[in-house]
Amino acid sequence: QSALTQPASVSGSPGQSITISCTGTSGDIGIYNYVSWYQQHPGKVPKLIIYEVTNRPSGISNRFSGSKSGNTASLTISGLQAEDEADYYCTSFTTITTWVFGGGTRLTVL
Amino acid sequence: EVQVVESGGGLVPPGGSLRLSCAGSGFIFSRYWMHWVRQAPGKGLVWVSRVSPDGSTTSYADSVKGRLTISRDNAKNTLDLQMNSLRADDTAVYYCTRHGDGDYFEFWGQGMLVTVSS
After folding, report:
1. Cα separation of A37 and A56, whole Å?
2. What 8-state DSSP symbol labels residue A4?
3. Where are the beta strands (DSSP E) in chain B?
4. Do B109 and A99 touch (CB under 8 A)?
5. Least reliable range by pLDDT among A90-99, B8-17, B41-50
6. How far apart are CA B3 and CA B78, in angstroms?
7. Complete DSSP assignment for A43-75
8. What percent of chain B is modeled with pLDDT above 70?
9. Residue B100: its pLDDT value, please?
10. How confident is the model over B24-63, as pLDDT tens digits?
11. Nearest to A48 among B44, B59, B106 (CB)
12. Nearest C-alpha of chain A: how many angstroms from B109?
């Protein structure tokens, strides 16, 4: 059950777009469309922002979008805002009926 | 309003036991998969365990298999995590989470800190 691979950090200026990658294997991301993304501000509870690869829950800005190609999922945030500065985690269901998270990516808005 | 509220955390010595509970409200508890996810201090999220709506099916991360046991009581709308043979690396905030209508963690509790230390 190795963790999904995410970059440790990304950064961008307000108004720019950034993309966070999440790489798994043919036993998780590659076979299932059960990839979701979570935003966590320091000291706060994780919040669902993308589910089933591309879907946004009600109330989540359309500046957040998700995609997948092969074993890699991606989260794109467009029109960066200061409040987007947070940790972001991907997760996927796996063929051994468990869930695996990525190591997390710290987004810094410059 | 959907709510999941954890209780039962605290300080426990290595090798000891602790039981976490989670109370669900604002939804039909018996219809949803429930999970535990943990986060060690300054570290990332790690999935721990899940239980099916009727309690008959469970899954565990390798790191906790044989030591932690998930269960639920649908009559009381509660989810439990019995933690035995605790180790220092079990120290974390434990989150109770409710599955969504699809496959994702839709609602999270506030988390409960478990510290394993002598």
Report:
1. 10
2. B
3. 3-7, 10-12, 18-25, 34-39, 45-51, 58-60, 68-73, 78-83, 92-99, 105-108, 112-116
4. no
5. A90-99
6. 12
7. TS--EEEEBTTTB--TT--TTEEEEEETTEEEE
8. 100
9. 87
10. 999 999 999 999 999 999 999 999 999 999 999 999 999 9
11. B106
12. 8
Tokens linked to B20: 């976490």
Dihedral of CA B99/B49/A107/B110: which sign? positive
d(CA B3, CA B8) in angstroms, rounded, equals 17
- The contact set of B with A (CB < 8 A) is 35, 37, 44-47, 50, 59-62, 95, 100, 102-106, 108-111
Tell whether A14 is within 8 A of chain B (Cβ).
no
| A91 contacts in chain B (CB < 8 Å) | 45, 47, 104-105
Q: Is A1 in Cβ contact with B102 (below 8 Å)?
A: no
Q: State the DSSP string of A9-33.
A: EEEE-TT--EEEEEE--TTTTTT-S
The candidate with the shortest Cα–Cα distance to A107, out of A43, A62, A61, A41, is: A41
Round to whole Å and give the CA distance between A26 and A16.
Answer: 32
Say yes or no for a CB contact (<8 Å) between A97 and B46.
no
Q: Does A5 touch chain B (CB under 8 A)?
A: no
For B112, nearest residue in chain A (alpha carbons): A45
